[in-house]
């Protein structure tokens, strides 16, 4: 059994939404707590996974590591030449492939 003390304003809001949803205040509170705990568990798992993953590397570091500066500049110039004046669509792609060393 759980007993919760809350400010009258919060209890009024709880009562309003419980009535609106056709639930008791206790059922609405149970559902809200269950949703919070599910969200929190997912968040904690995501944080844990990000801490356990491989080291992070920025895009700039990847570009330098694989020596792609010149290729990016050249492809950027080609994409600029291919774009039509007034073209606002995002259909120009930059493809980068790096072979294993």
TrEMBL record:
Tell me where on the tree of life, at the top rank, the source sits: Bacteria
Which BP terms in the Gene Ontology apply to this protein?
regulation of DNA-templated transcription
- Location of the region described as Disordered in the Swiss-Prot/TrEMBL record: 72-101
Q: Which InterPro entries match?
A: Arc_rbn_hlx_hlx, Ribbon_hlx_hlx
What protein is this chain from? Uncharacterized protein
Q: Which organism is it from?
A: Acidisarcina polymorpha
């Amino acid at each position: 059994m759980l007993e919760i003390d809350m400010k009258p304003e919060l209890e009024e809001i709880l009562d309003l939404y419980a009535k609106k949803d056709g639930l008791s205040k206790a059922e609405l509170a149970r559902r809200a707590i269950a949703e919070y705990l599910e969200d929190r568990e997912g968040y904690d798992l995501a944080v844990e996974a990000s801490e356990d993953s491989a080291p992070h590397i920025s895009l700039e570091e990847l570009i330098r590591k694989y020596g792609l500066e010149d290729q990016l500049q050249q492809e950027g110039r080609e994409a600029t030449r291919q774009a039509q004046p007034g073209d606002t669509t995002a259909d120009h792609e930059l493809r980068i492939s790096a072979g294993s060393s």
